[in-house]
Amino acid sequence: MNLWLGEILTTDAVAETWQQQARVAALADRLRAKAFGIAPENVDEAIKERSHLLKSVLPAFKQFCQTTLQKEPQEMLPVLWDLWLPLGIKLALHRQQLGRPLIQGILGGQGTGKTTTCKILSLILDRLGYRTVSLSLDDLYKTYSDRLVLTQQDPRLIWRGPPGTHDVDLGLKVLDQIRQSQSSVMLPRFDKSAYGGAGDRTTPEIVTGVDIVLFEGWFVGVRPIDPKVFDTAPPPILTEKDRVFARDMNHRLHDYLPLWERLDSLILLYPTDYRCSLAWRKQAEQQMIAGGKSGMSDAEIEEFVNYFWRSLHPELFIKPLLKDTAAVELAIEIHADHSFGEVYGN
Is there a contact between 190 and 138 (Cβ–Cβ < 8 Å)? Predict the structure, then answer.
């Protein structure tokens, strides 16, 4: 693969030998080919389009790898070629077909790479001529003062994050303004460091001419399930108290359905083992501590992650979406080492 990419970057025309290799590779993975709309009749055009885009994106991508990912660009080129470029092209085509701003949902748990995916897609879509902005579910948190009141009403909401801690009406207002192509929109932003880590709203970002919104979050697009499921829920939903909390969080998801209705499409970043999120969080905290910053202990991390699993357990809410053609358009598997696995198109 790196050899092929090297040929693209050092020749003005795609060599016939490279074209043949790339054609075979693009069609070999049938699931991925289907996901990105690649078939024998259009594969040559798809390879040419992707190779031209690669040349355009590469300088900014190299810089992103070195400064943000802190990885060698050569290491990331296969992922760029196989996943991010065709995904960017797919989103651009969807935007073009809609004839209005595209609201693209991105669902993924902790550590699945939502932020990185959004940044790279923005970089690619910018080269394709589309003004792209990222909006996190975190940006829709209620204010610090509102969450204090919320905690008094429901002391179980000890951390921000579960259903009920967001301002759904604010999200609806922002997405509707963008969908209606309003000239100037104020995107809410959230400062997680405010109030000693409790977090609060910060200065909104004023954006204009938005073509595509990448709306990401740990339960973006997740819908309520049958409450009876919690009678035999997996750990850490163990006690009756846990089951009551899980049912209540499930019920609160109904409040988010109008927000999910604004999504034109949903991409699922799916860990092959949901428990990877716990290991990834521990790695991240250890890196922070090693860098001289404060971080949580392993015991604190386990308590934190288990809290979120009790509220919306991945096995109950996320796994069923993997094959839900009505809810998810594209699912991307994430392995324990953060590498990408299968790509499913529905």
Answer: yes
